[in-house]
Design brief:
Layout (H helix, E strand, L loop, with lengths): L7 H18 L6 H21 L4 H17 L4 H20 L7 H28 L4 H13 L3 H19 L5
Helix pairs in contact: 1-2, 2-3, 3-4, 4-5, 4-6, 5-6, 6-7
Amino acid sequence: HALDAMDPDKAIGLYDKYKESVRRLAPDTVLTAADVGFENALGTVYVKLFDQDRGQLKWYDKALDTYKRVLQEDSGNYGANYNLATLYYNRGVQNIQNISAENDIPSIQQIQLASREFFTLALPYMLKAHRMDPTRKETLLGLEGIHYSLQDEEQSLYYRHKYEELKQDEGRPKDP
């Protein structure tokens, strides 16, 4: 309920109490799966808080740290890989969207370089998520966008083509 209420501090406190209770009842209990599930949900809350106010980078940083902790426990976690890629990518896009007529050419170039770094950081996580589930349209679109943003038109078109193939396959009747 604390996560649904977007109260991450309360959620962390309650989860810590839960883990303490479980350890008292069954000291040998391994909570890795529960920790990963909680951290993924917590990361989502941080992303939502950041989306409400893009100026509050503390939520962005907390989301990054949270998803990275998930990957330390479970490097093959689809959600954490996809969400990290999306966070980095969206941050690069946000930088570009914030360019205004008041920006001079050197500052625009710096913004573009910073955005390119975010797109580059996003790529390995999106690739990993795609390898885990190559039929997810979200990762194909993510890879298309990342490659487009990195000015790699060939790879961008490749993933667009894969996405279109997947959409066509969904529309075809299945063999009995």
